[in-house]
Amino acid sequence: MIKKIAFGAAGLAIAATTVFAASHANSPFAGAIKARQAHMQLYAHNIGILGAMAKGAVEYDSIAATAAASNLAALSLLSQAGYWPQGSDAESVEGSEALGAIWKNYGDVSEKSGALVEASQMMVGAAGSDLASLQDAMKELGGACGACHKSYRKPQS
Amino acid sequence: MKRVAILFVCLALFGASVFWIITIPKKTDPREIAGLQPDLEQGAAVFIAGGCASCHAAEKAEGEAKLILTGGRAFPSDFGTFYAPNISRDLENGIGHWSAIDLVNAMRHGTSPKGKHYFPAFPYGAYKNATLQDIVSLFAYLMTLPAASDQNRPHDVKFPFDYRRSLGGWKFLFQKSDWVLENTPTPEIERGRYLVEALGHCGECHTPRSALGGLDLSRWLGGAANPAGKGEVPNITPGKLNWSDADILAYFTTGFTPDFDTVGGHMVDVVDNLSMMPQADLNAIIAYLNAVPAVTGK
User: Fold this and answer.
1) What is the pLDDT of residue A5?
2) Is pLDDT of B231 > 60?
3) In this prediction, what percent of chain A has a pLDDT beyond 90?
4) Best mutation site among B254, B267, B272 for testing chain A: the one with the most A CBs within 10 Å?
5) Which listed residue, of A94, B92, B225, B255, carries a Cα 20 to 30 Å from A8's Cα?
6) For residue A19, what pLDDT is reported?
7) Residue of A51, A150, A156 with shortest CB distance to B256
8) What is the pLDDT of residue B22?
């Protein structure tokens, strides 16, 4: 009986240590994950300004649209090298939505991020000209964001 | 005692004959399409609206590669895993040896050219309402797409669902010939109904199913468990979806949700198709979604 309890206690201790170790091991990535998610949030906020005009929720304003589009273009060019440490994928770390495939397909990932650079530069031109061009450029932009999410973000619902 | 035995045998024979009769795979009389002229442009539009490539193109296909209908994509379900077949015009492994009537029977009745039942992973429950003209045009369009020689992978279906004849019973129970939304007050809503209920087969994922896999029509488009595993497919009836028409249109054309996240999961492929459709059709879909009965919850 005592033996059993001792085994049980040892088991619990091991389990507790493992859980502690796992959560502890996550912490080196917490900053990087926060940073990249904040970066996405900055995209979303600026796209929101353009999108509200595109769907007619807000009146078209070429100055505000150009400002938002220029932010996007600037954001798309920032180096993200420090955002994506190996091992910070959704399988390994809680709070991450990044699929491990990112680290296996560098070529494709950078091609897709190149597409975002292009789409946001197109948007800079479109946003300043007129509403119809802005609406057209939204499709390109949505496609660029979605292409990466489709392949490299954990499905959510 | 002997009488009881005879009665029992008679009943069994009767039951077997009823089963046999109701499970006979149905076909359309080829004379019904005899006068129809295919229109390739219309066929291409049906191909997009029907989402053929979303299942029949290779898993990671993008752009032009979506026109190569190699099949092979896996669809896990409670009944086993289905693999999309090659429907390219390859003579040996695709459907190059089919004629238009074979596609009519496949789409409207779920019946193969050899007279076997298809599994309802192929959404003939929706395509049954596709017009003969649309199917004839689609067939002509499919025959213009590239051939792919990929071999079909057999479905991995559990007993007893692997007994194809029993699918006749499934069809008898669940393959209804009418529309879900009976009244269409405007031509726009009627067009939307055709796109959502027939070609788009939206109900296949957005409507919950019974234990036998039949759609629960009382909760039409009311949201369902994701057959591929985790998560839920959302309720898109007015009982839950509170996006404005402009929000929905923006989502269909750009993939952005109202909070400027992007579309996810299988819906990515659907939005790829939607963004290629004429705006009048997208407005028709929105008009239809506003007209379906509200389902609460989920």
Assistant:
1) 52
2) yes
3) 74
4) B254
5) A94
6) 42
7) A51
8) 80
CA-CA distance, B162 to B157, in Å (whole number)?
Answer: 5
Residue B98 distance to chain A (closest CA, Å): 34
Q: Which tokens sit at A19? A: 């859980």
Q: How confident is the model at residue B176 (pLDDT cuts 50, 70, 90)?
A: confident
- B8-26 residue pLDDT tens: 888 888 888 888 888 888 9
Distance separating alpha carbons of residues B39 and B46, to the nearest angstrom: 11
DSSP class per residue in B188-252: HHHHHHIIIIIIS-THHHHS-B-TTS-B-GGGTTS-EE-TTSSSEEPP-STTT----HHHHHHHH
Residue A21 has pLDDT above 60, yes or no: no
pLDDT in tens, B112-162: 999 999 999 999 999 999 999 999 999 999 999 999 999 999 999 988 888
Tally the residues of chain B: 298
Tokens of B167: 């699918």
pLDDT at A96: 92
Share the mean pLDDT of chain A: 86
Residue of chain B nearest A157, judged by CA positions: B231
* Contacting residues of B for A47, CB less than 8 Å apart: 256, 260
Contact at CB, A145 and B262, closer than 8 angstroms:
yes
The ipTM (two decimal places) reads 0.75
Residues of A in contact with B231 (CB under 8 A): 155-157
B179-186 long-range contacts (CB < 8 A, ≥24 apart) are B179/B129, B180/B217, B180/B220, B180/B292, B181/B220, B181/B288, B181/B291, B181/B292, B184/B291, B185/B291, B186/B287
Task: Using only the alpha carbons of chain B, give its radius of gyration.
Answer: 20
Disruptive mutation site among B261, B276, B283 for chain A (greatest number of A CBs within 10 Å): B261
Give mean pLDDT, residues B207-227.
92
Alpha-carbon distance of A101 to B65, in angstroms, equals 21
How far A9 CA lies from chain B's nearest CA (Å)?
Answer: 35
Question: Starting from the edge strand earliest in sequence, which strands make up the sheet with B74-77, in order?
Answer: B74-77, B80-83, B156-157
Nearest CA to CA, how far is A136 from chain B (Å)? Answer: 9
Q: Contacts of residue B275 in chain A, CB cutoff 8 Å?
A: 139, 142-143
- Is A68 within 8 Å of chain B by CB? no
Q: Does A51 touch chain B (CB under 8 A)?
A: yes
Rounded CA separation B150/B88 (Å): 9
